[in-house]
Write a structure and sequence with these properties.
single chain; alpha+beta; Immunoglobulin-like; 2 domains; five-stranded mixed β-sheet; 6 helices; 10 strands
């Protein structure tokens, strides 16, 4: 379910950026458009994207919050920093964009109706404002910062510290992240004991690695103890005969599975 909620979150992000891109595109188009009626039409186009904007924003938040609970990310510094940047950036962009669009719309409607209260030169000065550029820069910087936090997940002063596991020669290594193993196939040596190094990168989530004779998972050959992420556990596996076996996480048997080849 974790990946599905991440999918929902990313779908919301896509819709959010698409709707927001309409407003940004309109803002830049206003800098070169001087026909009051066409300016009014552009503003109507921007306003029409607002419903999609807010709906996508809601989907974005829903998917992110649920995925945060399932993935146990709320103890990590990066997710709170990402939320703070999202809130601050959204408020800043709204505070800058709303009065600009309102002013442009008021003047454009008045001029389209025949008003001479504002000259063409004054209208040109309003439309050539650098406000759209400032809004776009704020949004771009905020987006890049959030993307960095989501990709690299820095600790930022609190949360668990993840250290790379030490894997000795001849050992077998596997890791878990996002409720999934990093590989669907493991290979171990036949006829002698070996170490299985398990790196659990899912903060606060219990995982283990168990080896069975086949995918029915009725006859265990090895069952590792549970590891609560983020942490690394080295299992000591007894000698296994050559053959093809099945491994899984006993807590997430539907999604975390693979083939264990001993040769």
């Amino acid at each position: 379910m974790y990946r599905w909620w991440v999918f929902v979150h990313l779908a919301g992000v896509f819709g959010f950026l698409l709707a927001h891109g309409v407003s940004v595109g309109v803002a830049f188009r206003l800098r070169v458009e001087r026909n009051p009626e066409r300016v009014s039409g552009l503003l109507q186009l921007s306003a029409a994207s607002i419903r999609v904007f807010y709906a996508s924003f809601g989907v974005l938040l829903l998917g992110g919050v649920v995925a945060g609970f399932i993935g146990h990310w709320w103890s990590e510094g990066w997710i709170w920093a990402a939320i703070a940047i999202l809130v601050v950036t959204s408020i800043a962009m709204y505070a800058m964009a709303r009065p600009f669009f309102q002013r442009v719309g008021l003047v454009a409607r008045a001029m389209a109706g025949g008003s001479k209260a504002v000259s063409d030169e004054q209208f040109d000065s309003i439309l050539r404002s650098r406000r759209p550029i400032t809004i776009a820069v704020v949004g771009f910087v905020g987006l890049i910062a959030i993307l960095y936090l989501m990709m690299f997940k820095p600790i930022l002063g609190f949360g668990s510290v993840q250290r790379p596991p030490v894997v000795a020669a001849g050992s077998v290594a596997v890791s878990a992240s996002g409720l999934a193993f990093d590989t669907s196939t493991l290979t171990g040596p036949a006829g002698r004991p070996f170490d299985l190094v398990f790196d659990n990168e899912d903060a606060g989530v219990l995982h283990n690695v168990a080896i069975y004779t086949n995918s029915a998972a009725t006859t265990p050959l090895f069952r590792g103890s549970y590891v609560k992420g983020r942490a690394t556990q080295t299992y000591h596996v007894s000698s296994l005969p050559a053959g093809t076996y099945f491994f899984r996480c006993d807590i997430h048997p539907a999604t975390m599975t693979g083939t264990f080849v001993v040769k």
